[in-house]
Every structure is written in C-alpha cells, then in structure tokens.
Amino acid sequence: MSTISDFNNAAQAGMDREHEVQLSLLRTLCEAVREQRNTVEVAQLLEQFSAYCEAHFVSEELIMRQNSFDEYEDHADDHCHMMDLLRVIAIDNAIGKSSEMNAVTDEALAFIENHIGTRDKRFADFLRTTP
Question: Whole-angstrom distance between the N-terminal and C-terminal Cα of the chain?
C-alpha cells in the first residue's frame, strides 16, 4: 500500500521533470527572441510555454495545499509574477518591441531559475521530510 511519503516522493520527481521541460521551453523562447524570429513563431513558443507554466503551477500549488505547505502564498505569488512577465512578453511581441522582449525574456529566465533553485527546492525539501 502506498503512503503519503510515496506520493510526495513521486510528486517531487514529477515536478523535477516538469522543471526541466519548463526551463527548456523558456530557453527556446529566449533564443527565438534573441534571434528576432518572426512574431508568429515567437507567439507560438510563448503560448506553448505559457500553457505549460499554467498547468505546472496549478499542479504544484495543489500539492502544496494538500500538504499544508507554509510557504504556499509566497510561492504562488512567484507563479503570478511569472505569468505577468509572460503577458508583458506577449504584448511586446504583438506590438513589435523586440528590444524590450529581450530584456523581459532574460528577466523571466533569471526569475524562474532562481525560483526553482530556492522556492521549489524548499518545497522539495519539505516534501522529502513530510511523513
């Protein structure tokens, strides 16, 4: 029979894989922006990344709530900030502000790398120690 600890370990492994995909998608988007690829291609990459983030964030937040994670609010605020950055990129792309897009995609990459390395790491540590 599975325990909550088994569930938490599986959830952590799944989130780690999702973080790898998330970073890969964002790096691909950053590359497209740096190379000034056409608006349609950037929009498609952005939509793919945004959809992935939304699904990942909902899943992660659900697991946090199920485990009464005490840093939930701050963690969820980071997720909202990331989605705000993606909306800015979408607007900049739609109106052709490529120089601003470079700065915002770089900011998004630095932000998500820091988020994964700090907040997500603390959550993973929490899951490892939750019975």
Answer: 15
